[in-house]
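Action item from last week, closing it out:
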Amino acid sequence: MVHSTLALSLLLIAVSSNLAMAIKKEKRAPQTLSRGWGDEITWVQTYEEGLYQAKKRNKPLMVIHHLEDCQYCQALKKAFAENEEIQEMAQNNFVMLNLMHETTDKNLSPDGQYVPRIMFIDPSLTVRADITGRYSNRLYTYEPQDMPILIENMKKALRLIQTEL
C-alpha cells in the first residue's frame, strides 16, 4: 500500500511538473532588450554591435534613444509597439537598438541630446541626418501621432540603401 501510494505520488509530481513546463513554454517571455518596444524584434545590445550588424547584414540600423521615466518616451513606445507595419519592418528589415543612455558618437546627437529621438545609420555606417521627423527644433523626435511619418522614414532608409550603396 505504501509502495503504491509512493508510486502514485511520484507520478503526480512528474505529470504536474511536465504540465507546468508546457505552460511556461507556451508563453513567450518578453525579450529584455526590447524594453517594451517590440518583443518579437531581435534587438542588439550595444551601439557598436548595431554598427557591426548593420554593415554585416547590409541593413540600416535604427537607434531609439529613450528614458524609462519620460512620459513622451512611454507614449511613443506604446504607439511603436502597437503598430503592426512598424513592427514588421523593424523585425525584418532593420538592425534595432534602443538606448537608455547617450553614446559617445556625437553624430547621434547633431541637434542635442533629447528623448525620445530616433536616428537611422546606413550600412556604410553613415548617420542619416537627412531622415528627420516633423519638428524643426528637435529634428529626430517623434510623437505617437507621427507613426505615419516614422513609417515613411523607415521606407526612405530602406530605399537609400538601394539607390546610394
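Closing note: Helices lie at 2-26, 47-57, 71-82, 84-93, 147-164.
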